Amino acid sequence: MNNQIKTILFILLGVALFFTLYFVLHLEIEKKLSTASNVPNNEKTSVVTSTLLPDAKIAFVNIDTLNEKYLFIADYVKAMKKRKETIEAQLQAMMNQFQNDYEAFQQSVQAGIAPQAELEKQKRKLEQQQKEIQNKQLQMDNLALELQAKNEQLQRDIKEFMKRFNNGKYDYIISYSDALPNVLYANPKYDITKEVLDALNKEYLEKKSNQKP
Length: 213
Description:
Blueprint: H1 2-37, H2 41-51, E1 58-62, H3 63-69, H4 71-111, H5 116-166, E2 172-176, H6 193-211
Parallel strand pairs: 1-2
Helix pairs in contact: 1-2, 1-3, 1-5, 4-5
């Protein structure tokens, strides 16, 4: 459960950030090529060579490290795991009780001793138990929907945080993950993962502290 939640949260985040960067760079290159196409042929080579690689400041963040060490993720996964285990235990207990009651009902029917009114009462009880089991299963399904919503919120929060964190220092901050290797090579000196992680955890702990009664 832990790894599944973390993987969903940050692989989707990595995909979003990668394709955002890809399309930004793609549009920039298209713009440069369009400009170069209006230049005489004898000047095109020098223009394209000098303009397709702008002097951009680029850094990267290792998503796997954030996945493992971002305290918000750790707390959220812990809470989700606890809720999942609670619902599973309740669901199992309800199903066991239903099975026992159903077998008792079948025995009463086969014995032919219980009055019809009592059998009808037991039947209505079983039907109610089935509805309660279905509702509990629905609660389990809703956890997946909640996870999806949390992932979308996390993406928005991370993007807003990176704007504040960057504050004009870099032109592009890209994400890297072994699970989603969009970046084939990255020079370690451009790795700002620790800075980002420290800042994220600091901000999260401050918010968490302020939420305490």
